[in-house]
Design goal:
With 128 residues, this protein is mostly helical. The chain is 62% helix and 0% strand.
Length: 128
């Protein structure tokens, strides 16, 4: 199911270049496109980076795919929170999930800018 190895261990090859690290960082931080495109910006932006850069860099492909999977998982979590809204537990759960989303996206962006792969915890790996 979930691979216990960190993402950096599954990446083989030369260390990522500065350009690759920048694109990988953008892939993680593109989750904040949700604030510009509220419907699905946090999914569309990493998807665009993954589709555009997957042929040119294995590191960017891996990081963009990880960001895409994380954001899909978060959207599914928000949907669950929305269904629990009337039970009054949905609001605090959505707030906690939103805080987790922001923190993890920033942490992953920093790791990618350092050239280290990052695997989000508690993420469904739907895009392989």
């Amino acid at each position: 199911m979930n691979d216990p190895k960190p993402a950096a261990a599954s990446y083989s090859g030369a260390p990522p270049t500065q350009e690759e690290r920048t694109w990988a960082m953008f892939a993680h931080l593109s989750a904040f496109a949700l604030f510009v495109f509220p419907v699905a910006g946090n999914i569309i932006a990493p998807l665009i980076i993954w589709l555009a850069r997957r042929e040119t860099s294995a590191f960017v492909e891996m990081e963009a795919k990880e960001a895409l999977n994380f954001n899909i998982s978060v959207v599914l979590g928000w949907m669950v929170c929305g269904s629990l809204f009337f039970m009054l537990i949905g609001v605090p759960l959505a707030a906690a999930l939103s805080l987790y989303w922001v923190i993890m996206a920033v942490v992953a962006g920093v790791k990618a800018s350092e050239g280290a792969g990052y695997r989000y915890p508690f993420t469904l790996r739907l895009v392989k």
